[in-house]
Amino acid sequence: MASIWQLQEAKNKLSEVVDEAANSGPQIITRRGVEVAVVLSYEEYARMLRARTRISAFFRESPLAGIDLMRDQSLSRADLAL
Questions:
Q1: pLDDT in tens, the chain (82 residues)
Q2: Is this prediction's pTM over 0.70?
Q3: Domains of the chain listed by start with CATH number
Q4: H/E/C letters for each residue in the chain?
């Protein structure tokens, strides 16, 4: 479970923040109550990089791949009365 650290506290306890990221998961850093950063273990970061997919592969593997998604041409703008 992610812990939330105020920036000043995270700076003062950086070793603890890093240990928590390695052992317990992402650690959220806030500045003035706003979430601004996340500390991840290197293992989790590497897993995220491996999971990235090229956009072309994403569309090729999509459940909508091969479906005809052409726009309905039955009404053209010229046929609309304004």
A1: 689 999 999 999 999 999 999 999 999 999 999 999 999 999 999 999 888 888 888 888 888 777 877 777 776 666 666 6
A2: no
A3: 1-57 (3.40.1620.10)
A4: CCEEEEHHHHHHCHHHHHHHHHHHCCEEEEECCEEEEEECCHHHHHHHHHHCCCHHHHHHCCCCCCCCCCCCCCCCHHHCCC
